[in-house]
Automatic annotation (TrEMBL):
Keywords: Calcium, Cell adhesion, Disulfide bond, EGF-like domain, Glycoprotein, Membrane, Repeat, Signal, Transmembrane, Transmembrane helix
SUPFAM superfamilies: Cadherin-like (SSF49313)
Molecular function via GO: calcium ion binding
Gene Ontology biological process terms in this record: heart morphogenesis; homophilic cell adhesion via plasma membrane adhesion molecules; tissue morphogenesis
Organism of this sequence: Cochlearius cochlearius
Domain Cadherin: 1-96, 105-206, 214-310, 311-416, 417-520, 521-634, 635-712
Record keyword NAD present: no
Location in the cell: Membrane
Name of the featured protein: PCD23 protein
Principal place of residence: membrane
Gene Ontology CC: plasma membrane
Protein encoded by which gene: Dchs2
Length: 712
């Protein structure tokens, strides 16, 4: 559009195939086109600009060019339509309707809130030349809390706003077109003032200290503290009033709601309450109202108006004996309700009995020993005076009493009265019987002096000791015949693990009781003796044993029964049985001594000498051996036999019989005919004494035979 008039825009040409030499053409613009911006050279066809163009007025032209060809006859007319587009030139600057804009926005709007929309205009017609891009600049170097959209010109918040930090912002908003050539671009700017409007978004903030001090003896109405709170908001939003929310239940203070002056409303006593924690609220007058609280600590300062008081009027404590000097005993403690030097106490021991063995730490009240204590020498210390005073001015003081018990240490071991004991007990003592009460003494006290007893050697299960009383008792029936003496050690111990124990040796002798019966080695004896022996001939020796001792074990022998004729006698000490008379086998073949006496029996008795005496019996069978002192004797001195002469040979005639009082072979008899059988008529059986006929008899020859028969 900035093309200058009279310059050739273009030239219309006839096509080459139509060109002829010296062709005459005439160019013209149709007259019905009233646009006077263009002219054409009628001969050459050159198109000229006759009037300046304005893209914003007309951006397109359509020209009807008539070409007359005079070489034809008649002349021919050709019409050409020529379309002309006007190219825009950036000849207009963007512009704002206002030179200065003031905008108000509340400080509590969120980020991204639309603040204002700028609308700049540009007279150019093409897109880029009239396309506006916005930009933003701040007048100072601070952070820009706003953001402008480069295309649509919307101004929004980029950061949270705070009026109390930034009350207003001066911005320069620029609008620039987007011509292709940077040098051709045009711009306009606008000054903008954005005022941040106050919102009650700030609570009051305390600037006064949260701590104050006041003496406890001040009068009512005394100014204690001034509460100050600031509110950066404006107007009523920043007007602050004060009140106490809590901590003043006893109405000790009054707070002026306008000035914030805190004064006492009653007398104070630090010993009752040494500090007050007042929750104070500062409230602004905004809508809604905002507030802040502060815990205001009022410390009541001490005046020395209290006397020290011991926690106990009598301190009772204990300390072990034998400890090195410096042993801690007790810590006495007094309280002084005052504070600071007024409550700082000093302790001391007042002179009294035994106080020299102790020392008091004046600062801590700790009592320690200055010497080693011995419970066996002195068990209790009573210190009448124990004093403390404060460091106030004037000083105040009080006293207490101390009672100290010396605790026992196990520094003595138990001791038996004797180092050995010997006792005798009967063997028939019942199980569980006490035979001796041991006693060991220990000078220590309490558990340290409590003695326990025990046995440390084998008693073969016969004895035990009561660990508390020291009584030794039997644990089973005793038997002297099994074990006649026990030797063992008894020990006395206390609870110490390092002190030596006390030991005594116990010897228990078991006294015999006649509890065993004399017992024969055999219950039945057999013995023999030849007849005709002289009196006092030993036959047999019997033995009986008695496990008892002394007289209880001494055995005496006697014949209890079966010895009516005193045929035998027995040595009472040795048990030798002997003849008392000459024995005759033929008179008495045997004597029986049996346990159960009968009319023909004797009893052999073994008795001890105990009281009462115990005894037992045995059976003895004594056989009297035969001596050949008796001849055979025929049952009849003569035998008269009558026989017929006709009896046959071999017939039995008679039988002779003789007896011998002796025994055994001495009593075996042999028969023989010693005369009267010379002719052999008879036969005599030497064993049986049977007489048989051996030859025929003849009365006429011999009418009588006299046979002499001998029994040997």
């Amino acid at each position: 559009e900035n093309f200058k008039p009279a310059q050739v825009l273009n030239s219309l040409k006839w096509p080459d195939n139509h060109l002829t030499t010296n062709r005459k053409l005439h160019f013209s613009i149709a007259k019905d086109d009233d646009d006077v911006h263009f002219e054409i050279d009628s001969l050459t066809g050159d198109l000229f600009l006759s009037k300046e163009l304005d893209f914003e007025t007309a951006s397109h032209f359509l020209l009807q060019v008539v070409i007359q060809d005079y070489n034809s006859n008649p002349p021919q007319n050709n019409t050409v339509f020529l379309s002309i587009d006007v190219e825009d030139q950036n000849d207009h600057s963007p512009y704002f309707q206002d030179d200065f804009v003031v905008i108000g926005i509340e400080e509590n709007v969120p980020v991204g809130t639309l603040v204002y929309t700028f609308n700049a205009k540009d007279g150019d017609g093409s897109f880029l030349n009239s396309k506006i891009q916005y930009s933003l600049e701040m007048s100072n170097m601070g952070e820009n809390p706003f953001l402008i959209h480069p295309s649509n010109g919307t101004l929004t918040t980029a950061f949270p706003l705070d009026r109390e930090i930034t009350r207003s912002v001066i911005l320069t908003v620029s609008a620039a077109d987007q011509a292709i050539n940077l040098t051709d671009r045009r711009l306009d700017s606008l000054a903008v003032k954005i005022v941040i409007l106050d919102i009650n978004d700030n609570s009051p903030s305390f600037t006064s200290l949260p701590l104050s001090y006041v003496m406890e003896d001040v009068e009512v109405g005394f100014l204690v503290h001034r509460v100050i709170a600031k509110d950066p908001d404006e107007g009523r939003n920043g007007q602050v009033t004060y009140r106490i929310l809590s901590g003043n239940e006893n109405k000790a203070f009054v707070l002026d709601e306008i000035t914030g002056l805190l004064t006492t409303a009653q007398l104070l006593d630090r010993e009752i309450q040494e500090r007050y924690s007042l929750t104070v609220m500062a409230l602004d007058d905004g809508s809604p109202a905002l507030s802040a609280t502060q815990v205001l600590t009022i410390v009541v300062l001490d005046v020395n108006d209290e006397t020290p008081i011991f926690l106990k009027q009598i301190y009772e404590t204990a300390v072990h004996e034998n400890q090195d000097p410096g042993e801690f005993v007790v810590k006495v403690e007094a309280v002084d309700r005052d504070a600071g030097l007024n409550s700082l106490l000093r302790y001391e021991i007042l002179p009294g009995t035994g106080y020299e063995k102790f020392k008091m730490n004046s600062d801590s009240g700790e009592l320690v020993t200055t010497a080693s204590l011995d419970r066996e020498t002195q068990e209790v210390f009573s210190i009448k005076g124990n004093s403390c005073h404060d460091l106030g001015s004037p000083s105040r003081s009080s006293t207490a009493q101390l009672s100290l018990m010396v605790l026992d240490e196990n520094d003595h071991n138990p001791l038996f009265v004797k180092t050995q004991y010997q006792i005798s007990v009967r063997e028939d003592l019942e199980k569980g019987s006490a035979i001796l009460d041991l006693f060991a003494s220990d000078e220590d006290g309490g558990l340290n002096g409590k003695v326990t007893y025990s046995l440390i050697d084998d008693t073969f299960g016969a004895f035990a000791i009561d660990s508390v009383t020291g009584s030794i008792v039997t644990t089973k029936a005793l038997d002297r015949e099994t074990k006649s003496q026990y030797t063992f050690r008894a020990v006395a111990s206390d609870c110490s693990t390092h002190l030596p124990r006390s030991t005594t040796v116990m010897t228990v002798l078991i006294q015999d009781v006649n509890d065993n019966v004399p017992t024969f080695e055999q219950s039945y004896y057999k013995a023999s003796v030849w007849e005709d022996q002289s009196p006092k001939t030993d036959i047999v020796q019997v033995f009986a044993t008695d496990l008892d001792s002394g007289l209880n074990g001494e055995t005496e022998y006697s014949i209890l029964s079966g010895n009516e004729n005193a045929t035998f006698l027995i040595d009472s000490a040795r048990g030798i049985l002997a003849t008392n008379t000459v024995l005759d086998h033929e008179s008495t073949s045997s004597y029986r001594f049996v346990e159960m006496a009968s009319s023909h029996c004797l009893v052999l008795l073994a008795s001890d000498r105990g009281t009462p005496s115990l005894n037992s019996t045995a059976t003895v069978l004594i056989t009297v051996l035969d001596v050949n002192d008796n001849p055979p004797v025929f049952s009849s001195p003569e035998y008269h036999i009558h026989v017929k002469e006709s009896i046959p040979v071999g017939s039995h005639i008679t039988e002779v019989s003789a007896n011998d009082c002796d025994a055994g072979t001495n009593a075996e008899i042999t028969y023989a005919i010693i005369s009267g059988n010379d002719r052999g008529h008879f036969h005599l059986d030497e064993k049986t004494g049977s007489v048989d006929l051996m030859k025929t008899l003849d009365y006429e020859d011999t009418m009588k035979f006299t046979l002499i028969i001998q029994a040997t």
